[in-house]
Design goal:
Helix content: 55-70%
Number of strands: 2
Number of helices: 3
Shape: elongated
Strand content: 5-15%
Strand order of the largest sheet: 1-2
Radius of gyration: 19 Å
Distance between the termini: 19 Å
């Protein structure tokens, strides 16, 4: 993604990269799948499995998807610094 910034009548372009890597997106997709399964089981009347799946999805997998650092992203940050 390219970011254009105007400074003193000059346009400066900077390369901006997403802070998330492949591992983050895989964890987020797993969280979405677990949450959807949790809501489906809740709709079927499950009072033990559904809250467990929803809690794991919302409280474990989504924060893990945000907080886990991908090795590729860390390597790029080290080379740029």
């Amino acid at each position: 993604m390219v970011l254009k910034v105007k400074k003193d009548k000059q346009v400066v372009t900077e390369e901006v990269e997403w802070p998330f890597g492949k591992k983050n997106y895989i964890l987020f997709a797993a969280a979405v799948v677990v949450i959807v399964i949790g809501f489906v089981t809740l709709g079927q009347g499950s009072m033990t499995l559904a809250p467990l799946l929803l809690t794991i999805g919302y409280c474990v997998l989504i924060p893990a998807a945000i907080l886990v650092r991908d090795d590729v992203v860390e390597a790029k940050e080290k080379t740029n610094a």
